[in-house]
Amino acid sequence: MAQTYAVSGLTPQQWDSEFFTDYVRSSRFKRYMGTDEGSIIQLKEDLAKKKGDSVTFALVNELVGDGVTGNQTLKGNEERLGSRSHKVTVDVLRHAVAVDDWDVQKSVIDLRNAAKTQLREWAQKKLRDGITNALGQIDGVNYTSSSAAQRNTWTANNSDRVLFGLTTSNYNATFATAVGGLSAGEQCSPNALSLMKRLAQAGSPKIKPVYVREMDQEWYVVFVGPKAWRDLTEDNPTTNVLTLANRDARVRGVDNPLFTGDSLVWDGMILRELPEIAALDVSGSSGARIEPVYLCGAQAVGLAWAQRTKSTTDTDDYEFLHGVGVQEIRGIEKLRFGTGASDLTTPKDHGIVTGFFAAAND
Question: pTM of this prediction?
């Protein structure tokens, strides 16, 4: 009887594929990822089969013209398609672990499996932190690395996509001035989130919500930091309209999101706590701690993969020390479009309204 043997050369490839699938699927952002323009985090793998160091995302705004009716002539009344593009640059990301108990390892795949959990958790954290940082980017620069001048330019360009505290009258084109004027009482609230939603709907161009097939509805998704989440949900729970709405209008019992920590809903928005959102490095009035909140619509973030996760192995110290590593080539950026003469001039965040609220430490 003929016997079938596993092809040893394919084993690492299978491990790589499973590793990549598992670590992306386990990401808390997975439900918001997709390859189409209607996804909050749009994925592209254009460079997986060709050379290059950047991936281009096409940003297409909604049509706003009235069209024609009856026997009116359409020629000459066409609307210019408001399409722009954004390039996301990719880079190599690598890490490895060492295993010295080689006597218990029987093959190269066992070595990979021995390090699988640690490497997967590391990759998940890097992806999570990369997306979180992208939400707060200042024109392609991580917030913590941005200068005062860059923050001012971003604030001016995104005047219809930024909210400081509870009212639009707090706006100032100088970022530090706008933040510095926020008092401890300017906390995140359901009404403030509704105002952010109205800004998204009225923006020029407006921010498109995402279609959730399971609900057959369009929603915005809001990522809230831990202290702002506390203020949003725990400020007098007996009268807080958000708490009451999710308590009385949704599933009762232990499966209610108020108990499980799952998504809350409010005014056409899905609210998610994101513990990695950090406080700003500038304070409000009287030293008030300030935390950002991100309302996201379609094409808020671009995630480009030029190379999916690939595993590597190494041997050192007279074959006593054995290492296994992973590497991938990708880039993550908040998507922006130019509002001037080209894609790059006067950039504006494509799918995010950013709110800044007082959120004191516990």
Answer: 0.84
